[in-house]
Amino acid sequence: xxxxxxxxxxxxxxxxxxxxxxxxxxxxxxxxxxxxxxxxxxxxxxxxxxxxxxxxxxxxxxxxxxxxxxxxxxxxxxxxxxxxxxxxxxxxxxxxxxxxxxxxxxxxxxxxxxxxx
Length: 117
Hints:
42% helix; two-stranded parallel sheet; globular; alpha/beta
């Protein structure tokens, strides 16, 4: 929701539609740039979002910082965490991602890049 929240486009009135729009943008960007993308949501969208281009996943239990915890769990389990870029504007998640070996990009600058495709 960090990337979604960079634009005050009333995403909060329909979070599931906002998640679907983000996945659509990420699919187009990943296909154009040849990037591997995993998007981690706090909870499963309804209806579930499926993609053949990117991995769409969610935290096992919706709760405060659940997606952050899932991202960090994945980083710690990844022997190639140094090759992972985490997109967030959340300082605490950024620090946790750095500690796990990943690089971090701000959500606003990343959103501008995916919107340019």
